[in-house]
Amino acid sequence: MSSLLVVSAHAGDFVWRAAGAIALATARGDRAKVLCLTYGERGESAKAWREGKQLEEIKQLRRAEATNAAEVLGAEIEFLDAGDYPLLETPELIDRIVRVYREVEPSVVLTHPLVDPYNQDHPAAARMALHARVLAQAVGYDAPGDPLGAPPVFFFEPHQPEQCDFKPDVLLDITSVFDAKRKAMECLPAQQHMWDYYTDLAKRRGVQLKRNAGPNLGLPHNTMGEAYMRLYPQVTEVLA
Ligand SMILES: [Zn+2]
């Protein structure tokens, strides 16, 4: 069975940026696991703070929302509660991520791009996801399970793609699961302003997807897409 591992800095990130890929994986019968390093309790919960909620309450709120979103997508979810704003890179946290790699044995990994001048937690999560992947590959690394293979890593689309050096080289057709993505987004009322934004983005990426697929595939008018960048070269015997 194939498995997808999504390393998300905050509780909502995986929903806006990768819910389509997750829903496609689980619809195929693959395992999908979301690893949220934090709840986004300080940096991405402004509405709850303005309503006068306190830190622990906000963490529980974001945990419940993200859990509901993962359930809609058919994915498992785990929270490491590492603390956001700032999300600090530590050997202990990287080790915890290694253990998740060894347990999930992902065939594909999704995470944030390595550049984001608007949010330092996102590149920190990406650096740790990549560092842990390499450690999990080492035969001599002391963690349960077998050494990891070489799962390809895809960066999902950041909120300000141009400023994050994000230029898509993969357009994923998420039309068949877009309703699930929208439902997952609607599990996050703390960030309601994002629902329509990411619906519009999926439409635009869908238009680009159709243009790149060409007319012969006969993709429908309402094609929806998600954009990704590959970190490592694609390995193939056939150029396609
Ligand atoms: Zn985030």
UniProtKB/TrEMBL annotation:
Name by which UniProt lists this protein: Putative LmbE-like protein
Top-level lineage group: Bacteria
One GO process term, biological-process aspect: glycoside metabolic process
Pfam families to which the protein is assigned, alphabetical: PIG-L
GO terms for MF: hydrolase activity, acting on carbon-nitrogen (but not peptide) bonds, in linear amides
Segments passing through the bilayer: none
Sorted UniProt keywords: Zinc
Source species taxonomy: Bacteria, Bacillati, Actinomycetota, Actinomycetes, Pseudonocardiales
